[in-house]
Amino acid sequence: MKIGLIHATTTAVNPIVEAFQEESTPVELLHFMDTGLLPMIEESSSLTPEIIRRFSLLVNLAVQSNVDCIQLSCSAFNNVTKILQPLYPMKLFRSDEAVLDEALGYERIGLISTVKETPIALMSYLKEKNPYVQMESLVEPGLIHLLMKGDKEQHDRRVREMVYQLEGKVDVIVLSQYSMEHIAAQVQSTIPILTAPRASAKRCLSYLRT
User: Fold this and answer.
1) Best label site of 52, 70, 117, 168, fewest CB within 10 Å?
2) Which helix H or strand E contains 121, and what residues bound it?
3) Distance (Å, whole) CA 115 – CA 175
4) CA of 41: how far to CAs of 30, 37, 73, 156, in Å?
5) Is the model's pLDDT at 115 over the cut of 80?
6) pLDDT tens-digit map of 148-161
């Protein structure tokens, strides 16, 4: 099995690679990255035609590499799958769809994000699946850049603070960015804390086995 992974940040690589490794299923992972995409969407606050065209270059490279499916790793770009999926024969997986489907088993969902465009993509998916779902969203724009600059301690502390802010208001919390995967183990929470990489890896492999 060959899976194409599309990244917009370097911080997403290790979490998704480790998630696939934990599944103990032989799989070849091909990485396609454009770190210029995140600054573009932060500036425009939406999926502009230029961003979609640039993103499609990564998808094209993956397709030309004969991958069996494509997994996104950056949640801010998830809605691009609706636009691009009809153009390609293999499945394009959003970075968050598996974990959000799991979260939909709860009545009140809390979303924590470190990129301001991420909640738009997540909330639109949740509302499409269940128009009556209750959501609480906390986002600290640009916080991911602390991690990218090596300030892991401050990044993690501020994410933990957001988790504690949501406790008591929701039934489950989703850590939206792959780069927050490690924080789930740092928090003693009274409610489930869900992260996307492992859920995504499981869904990808399940799809390829069918």
Assistant:
1) 168
2) helix 118-129
3) 12
4) 24, 6, 15, 23
5) yes
6) 888 999 999 999 99
pTM confidence score: 0.89
What's the rounded Cα separation, in Å, for the pair 191 and 208? 32
In which residue are the tokens 């934990």 written? 22
Give the β-pairing of 2-7 and 69-72.
Answer: parallel
Beta-strand runs (E) in 57-125: 69-72, 91-93, 108-113
Q: Which residue has the tokens 């397709």?
A: 63
CB count in 10 Å sphere of residue 207: 14
Q: Residue 38 pLDDT > 90, yes or no?
A: no
Of 46, 104, 54, give the one whose Cα is nearest residue 79.
46
Query: Letter for the amino acid at 75?
Result: S
79 in helix, strand or coil?
A: coil
Cβ proximity of 8 and 35 under 8 Å = yes
The kind and range of the H/E element at 98 are helix 97-103
